[in-house]
Amino acid sequence: MRTAPLHISRFPRLRLLPVGLLLLYGALQVALLFPFGGAAFRQRLKRRWSRQLLAVLGIRLAAADDVLSGLEHGLLVANHISFIDIAVINAVLPSAFVAKSEVARWPLIGWLAGRADTIFIQRGSRKAAHQAHRQMVEALLAGRRLAIFPEGTTTAGDRLLPFHAALFQSAIDAAVPVHAIALSYRAANGARSTAPAYIDDMSLADCLLTVLQADRLVAHLSLAASFDPPPPDRRHLAHRCHGTIAAALAHAESRSNAQPPGNEAEITR
């Protein structure tokens, strides 16, 4: 059940303006620069723009594990809380993403996603699923990082839903590493925050306003496990990724309760 709308102060509403301007700036980069740059150039643009977006939203980026910088290729598997997750991952590991086809219809964001290497999956269509699988395998064979959210939907960050195993087949067919990534958001006092959660019938604007009203959010990204080579059975692979991410999130929760906030290592790369 969706909670009652928050009383948003005038200040966060004003901060929506730079968010909108940054989205337009990203659209210009995608339209004018992406077609003329190679993969490394596009990755640098994605990383820089994603960090700018997090800064405008007042979200600090932190990593519990510096091993993230060594994940040069393969399939990234992460839990899903918000559309902001994409910026958090891109700020560290610029990637192509797999998303449901509905995202392509989002104003401006859908246009940006479609021209920033996103692979869209149309639900309920076997032909579309085969086409998306082929695109995923091609991207992985080309040495790119490809990120998926196998829960298929978002949560408030308080639980981990079952993973859809079909999305893991591309990594098995391409014979590339699979990296399980744990993602969470915390408030200034170290407690888990639901402010970025994009759930129920919440609109994009509602979510952005809630984030802007939150106090000093920190996005945590850590490597739960890597599977290289991945197990040959996709259901087994999905189960192992689910278990390692669940364990990493539980460990982060217990650690945040046991020590004061502010001890995480901030990413500055």
TrEMBL record:
Pfam families attached here? Acyltransferase
Single GO MF descriptor: 1-acylglycerol-3-phosphate O-acyltransferase activity
GO BP term (any one): phosphatidic acid biosynthetic process
The source's superkingdom equals Bacteria
Cite the SMART domains for this sequence: PlsC
Lipid metabolism listed as a keyword: yes
CDD domains assigned to the protein according to its UniProt record, in alphabetical order: LPLAT_AGPAT-like
The Phospholipid/glycerol acyltransferase domain is annotated at 74-186
Upper taxonomic lineage: Bacteria, Pseudomonadati, Pseudomonadota, Betaproteobacteria, Nitrosomonadales
Which pathway or pathways does this protein act in?
A: Lipid metabolism
Q: Which residues cross the membrane?
A: 20-41
Protein name (record):
Lyso-ornithine lipid acyltransferase
For this UniProt record, the keywords arranged alphabetically read as follows: Acyltransferase, Lipid biosynthesis, Lipid metabolism, Membrane, Transferase, Transmembrane, Transmembrane helix
- The protein's organism comes out as Sulfuritalea hydrogenivorans sk43H
Keyword Metal-binding listed? The answer is no
